[in-house]
Design a protein that fits this description.
Elements: H1 3-26, H2 36-48, H3 50-68, H4 73-101, H5 108-140, H6 143-151, H7 171-183
Helix pairs in contact: 1-3, 1-5, 2-3, 2-4, 3-4, 4-5
The structure holds fe (ii) ion (2 copies).
């Protein structure tokens, strides 16, 4: 498997764990028991890594895919548009959570609805990529296409949450994720 696809798969699995954690938090909004600091850290990570590093890697694949198979252009354009929309949604939600962390009164139902929307759209986006677009890309792109994309990976910044070096800001969140995995019987 091309290196870029191996990385994207791993990142999807990591994001799925993060979305599960966020899902547990959104269930606590109604009681006022949600951990807004944790949610803020999750969104900060999404801005720093999925939006800034993961999606641009996919866009490189999608650009080649579109040029090789014009019949896929509409679907690819739609995924790229979703990358922009997801980034916008992340920023809106992050702003709401920032206000909550600063103890500005927030409309809990609005925060809950936007969080649910965020989780739903992210999961849907990832499953389209995994189930349909990546398998198609594997069939359509040549070894040379993959080699060119893989060659650009060297400049990728490390993942500040799931990577080998976890930045200070994300330490607590990483511990929460790991303990959730233990609870679920994972490693
Ligand atoms: Fe994507
Ligand atoms: Fe993705």
């Amino acid at each position: 498997m091309p290196e870029v696809l191996a990385r994207l798969h791993k990142e999807h699995a990591d994001f799925a764990r993060l979305l599960d954690l966020l899902d547990r938090q959104q269930a606590l909004f109604a009681d006022g028991a949600a951990d807004y600091d944790m949610i803020g850290a999750i969104l900060q990570y999404v801005l720093e890594y999925p939006d800034a590093v993961h999606h641009p890697k996919e866009d490189l694949i999608y650009n080649v895919l579109r040029s090789r198979d014009p019949a896929l252009a509409a679907e690819i354009g739609n995924l790229e548009e979703e990358h922009r929309e997801l980034a916008e949604l992340t920023r809106s939600l992050a702003e709401m959570i920032e206000r909550a962390v600063a103890e500005v009164p927030v409309d809990r139902a609005a925060v809950r609805d936007l969080t649910r929307e965020f989780i739903r759209r992210y999961r849907h986006h990832i499953s389209r990529e995994e189930l349909h677009v990546f398998p198609t890309a594997l069939q359509v792109l040549s070894d040379r296409d993959w080699a060119e994309i893989d060659a650009g990976l060297a400049g990728d910044p490390g993942d500040p949450l799931f990577g080998e070096v976890v930045t200070n800001y994300f330490q607590a969140l990483r511990e929460d994720i790991d303990s959730l995995a233990e609870l679920a019987g994972g490693d």
